Every structure is written in structure tokens, then in C-alpha cells.
Amino acid sequence: GANLKEVLAKQVPQEREKMMGLKCLHGDKKLGDIKLSNVMGGMRGLMLLMCDTSYVDPNKGIFYRGMTLKDVVKDLPRVQEGSKEGTPEGAFWLLTTGKMPNKGQAEGLTKEWNKRGNVPRYCQRLLDSMDQRIHPMAQLCAASSCLDAESKFVKAYRKGVKRAKYWEYIYEDAMDLCAMMPPVAAIIYCNAFKDGAGSRELNPKEDWSGNFCRMCGYKDKNFIDLMRLYFVLHADHESGNVSAHATQLVGSALSSPYLSFSAGMAGLAGPLHGLANQEVLIWLQEMIKEIGDDPKDDEIITYVNETLKGGKVVPGYGHAVLRQTDPRFELQNDFAMKNCKDDKNVKLVTRLWKLIPEILKKLGKVANPYPNVDAHSGVLLQHYGLKEMQYYTVLFGVSRVLGVMAQTIWARALGAPIERPKSFTSDFLCKFLQDK
Ligand code: CMX
Questions:
Q1: pTM (2 decimals)?
Q2: What is the CB < 6 Å shell around ligand 1?
Q3: Local structure of 75: helix, strand or coil
Q4: Which GO cellular component terms, listed alphabetically, does the Swiss-Prot or TrEMBL entry include (predicted)?
Q5: Which of 349, 365, 399, when mutated, tests ligand 1's pocket best, judged by the most ligand atoms within 8 Å of its CB?
């Protein structure tokens, strides 16, 4: 079938049965031990969550439904005439159903999102009233939480819909939210940087990324391809990262997908998470100001060491789970090598990739000295003229809606309960552990 909801409706009963079986057969088995250092260390390394959309291998990076990103990028259907990159619509289909869509299925999603994507007037007015001091990410949070007024789930819940049917309404909200994300983000962009100019109408002939770029005032076909790739790469990264987990946590209270996405975006806005793409560019520009755009290796090394001495992290490097160069970094680098390898900033990023890991290794404490997804995106955006770095994390958010909404649909379809870990006072723990 060409309709995503029908495909999912067939899968839901099977997956529910699988979960029931898993719980009945293995519910009492142990997954590991919890040490105090895990509890005090941000819960790193504990097998605590279940998520089928994607999986991060420490060395190979992210897998979408068992496929490496390299294969995903290669196999996604191309839907727009002449485009070289697969669409995020296709990635959403893959993340939700577990199967790579055919061209017709991916195109069907584009059509459906173009129908669902009109941003209500009250949300536009809210965005238009924003003071320019409000960071674009804070604006994105405000817009997505106000859209809660659209929630079909909230209305159905009030009418007492049965639990087994929750997911059908959550699906509707998730689809509407994904559809509205490019126009919402474009309005934030145009208000902040173009004095509010720019179209707010979706063109049914364009795909999700094409519409977004046009609404922001970008027409270059290569740039639209870059955004397709960017949106595919940033969509999903398991469910334990801050933005995905915040979305799941809030969703587990049965708050609407709009509110839970807003919570996820509040997390993405942090400098240790999604804001790192903005931080990378600020750091890079400060470095260029100090040592020029064609520095010697020694000068770079000294500059990086100064950053570290100042008690700061090197943005774009390190990861909580990954232990190798992030394939999302490599795929962006592949794009750069094909499209803009002579760009000065691109060259610099490639040189840093060789130098920074060696410096971080010497610190002896950095678990992963290699670049992550955020180390590259900024210079590519700069190359195509999207220079407003305060906006970069919004692009990450536009992409991330795909992964976290795929996760949310499945969490409700499988009846994931409200999350409520138990906390203990430090005094209780001191006593408890002394007696051990
Ligand atoms: N520069 C300097 N020091 C770093 C570092 C970096 N890039 N990455 C890790 N470290 C340090 C940590 O600060 C920590 O030091 P302390 O013990 O003194 O506090 C030590 O190395 C051990 O940390 P870790 O186990 O390697 O890393 P964590 O899992 O705690 O944190 C992350 C992971 C991403 C927050 C961290 O590597 C970091 O701050 N990186 C820079 C910011 C960044 O690029 N974030 C984007 C990540 C991708 C994303 O989510 O978007």
C-alpha cells in the first residue's frame, strides 16, 4: 500500500505481540548491574531504554533500522527532478516502518505533508510577535508548544478514546507536526534575518526540503540537496540522547506530540547537544580571526590548547556513545569534497580533523577524540550563504522531528508507560553503600 498509516496499522498488532512475548518470556531476567558511578555519571552505559528506529554502534555510528547511514543515503529514493540526494520523507518512512520506501511511497509522503503543512494563523502571529532577543531555538519551542492547540490526540483523549487506539491520533499529530516544521522554521528564519519577508505558502510541486529552502529564500539546487542530506543525517540517534529522551519522557505522560517535541527542542538547544553546531562555527571564526584562514599546524595546535586551558571543550569533538569519527561527519565531508572542496573553511575543517584528535588523546580523559556531526555542518551552510549561525540548531531541530516523531508513534502504539525512575537522597545512598 502507498499509505503510511495503513502500513503501520498492519505492523502494530505484530509488534505488540512481540513485546508481550518478550515481557512474558524474559521479564525477570537481568540486563546488567547498576553502579553508583553510573548513577552519578549521567546514566552512561546502562541498558535502560528500548528504541527500534535506530541504534548507535560505538564504532560504526548510527544505523537506521539496521542500515548504516551510508547505505541509507545511497538507497533512499530521489523524488525531485535532478536531485542527487534522497529525501528526508523517505527517511521518515524507513524510520517508522523499518522498510526502505519505494519512490511512490516517498512521494506519497511529500504530497501528504504538503497538504498538512499550513501553519495556523495564531502560531504565525506568535512568531511575528517575538522580540529579536529571543533565540531561534526558544522561538521553535514556543511555536511547537502553541501548536498543541491542533492536537487530535488531545481531543480524542478528552472524548475517552481507548488506549489501543491512542497511536492512531498520535500518528495524525506527528504527521501534522512534521509537515508544519519547514514553514515554522522558515518563518523564524525570515523574521529574524529577512525582516519578515518571504513566502509562507507550501508549493505542492516541491518536496519538504525544497519548500523549506524556497521559503527561506534559497534557490540553489545544490543547497537544496545539501539540506536533503542534512535532514536525513540528523533525523535520529537512538532514544537516549537529550532531545530524543526529553521527547519520550514528556510523551510518556501522554502530553501531545507538540508539547513533547517542544521539550525535546529545549534540550537540543543546549551547547553540549545541538547548539554545538553554532558553537563550532563561532569557535572556528574566532580562530581564523586570531591566526588567519591558512594557519600552520603549530598555530592550530596552540590555539586548540588555549581553548582547553581556558576550561572550555572543543566544540564538535567527542561523543557520549561514539568512539570513532561520526559517519554523519564523513558523509557531510563527502558532500563537501564533491561540491566545494576548495572552500577555505572546508579545507580548514578537514585539517582540524587530522590535528584535534591527537591533541584530545593527550588529555587522557576524552573518551572519543574524533569529530561528531556538528563539526562539519556549519562550514557547508556558510558556503551556500546561510551565514546566521544562531539559526543552525533550528535546522537540526527540523531534521530531528522525523526521528523523535517516529519514536513517539511507536512508543504509544506499544503502550510505553509513564517514565518514573526512583531517586534516592545522597544520605540514604551513603548509608546503603556503607552497609554493603
Ligand atoms: N573537548 C575537551 N574536553 C572534552 C571534549 C572536547 N571536545 N569531549 C570530552 N571532553 C572531556 C569532558 O569534558 C570530560 O572532562 P571532565 O572529566 O573534566 O569533566 C572528559 O573529557 C570525559 O568526557 P567524555 O566521557 O569523553 O564525554 P561525555 O560523554 O561526558 O560528553 C560530550 C560527551 C559530547 C558532551 C563531550 O564530548 C563534549 O562536551 N563535546 C563538545 C561539545 C559537542 O561537540 N557536543 C555535540 C555532541 C553531538 C550532539 O549531541 O549534537
A1: 0.96
A2: 241, 272-274, 276, 308, 313-320, 360, 365-368, 372-374
A3: helix
A4: mitochondrial matrix
A5: 365
Q: Is the ipTM here above 0.90?
A: yes
Q: Which of 173, 176, 207, 374 is catalytic?
A: 374
pLDDT band at 210 (very low <50, low <70, confident <90, very high): very high
* Cβ neighbours of residue 369 closer than 8 Å, sequence gap 6 or more: 317, 318, 356, 357, 358, 359, 360, 361
Atom of ligand 1 nearest to the CA of 242: 50
273 counts as catalytic:
yes
Three cell numbers, residue 233: 543525517
pLDDT digits (tens, 9 = 90+) for 420-435: 999 999 999 999 999 8
Structural contact between residues 114 and 204, judged by C-beta atoms closer than 8 angstroms: yes
- The predicted pLDDT at position 80 comes to 82
Q: Which of 37, 56, 236, 313 to mutate to test the pocket of ligand 1 (most atoms within 8 A of CB)?
A: 313
Query: What is the CA(194)–ligand 1 centre distance, in A?
Result: 35
Residues in CB range of 405: below 8 A, 6 or more apart: 92, 174, 175, 177, 178, 257, 261
Q: How many CA atoms lie within 13 A of 271 on its CB side?
A: 9
**CA 350 to centroid of ligand 1, rounded, Å:** 20
Distance 34 CA to ligand 1 centre (A): 22
Q: Which residues contact 318 (CB under 8 A, 6 or more apart)?
A: 360, 366, 367, 368, 369, 370, 372
Cell of 387: 551565514
Mutate to test the pocket of ligand 1, among 317, 377, 396 (most ligand atoms within 8 A of CB): 317
Residue 347 located in a structural domain: yes
Residue 164 lies in a domain: no
Helices assigned H by DSSP within 297-373 = 297-309, 327-339, 344-363
Domain ranges, residue 362: 276-383
**Model confidence at 2, in pLDDT bands (50, 70, 90)?**
low
CA distance 242 to 263: 10
How many domains does the structure of the chain reveal? 1
Given 234, 237, 273, 376, the catalytic residue: 273
- Residue 352 belongs to some domain of the structure: yes
**Any catalytic annotation for residue 195?**
no
Using an 8 Å Cβ cutoff, are 402 and 86 in contact? no
CB 380 within 8 A of CB 221: no
Task: Kindly give the number of the ligand 1 atom that is closest to the alpha carbon of 308.
Answer: 2
Q: Whose CA is nearest to atom 23 of ligand 1?
A: 366
Nine-digit cell at 174?
506527528
CATH number of the CATH domain containing 299:
1.10.230.10
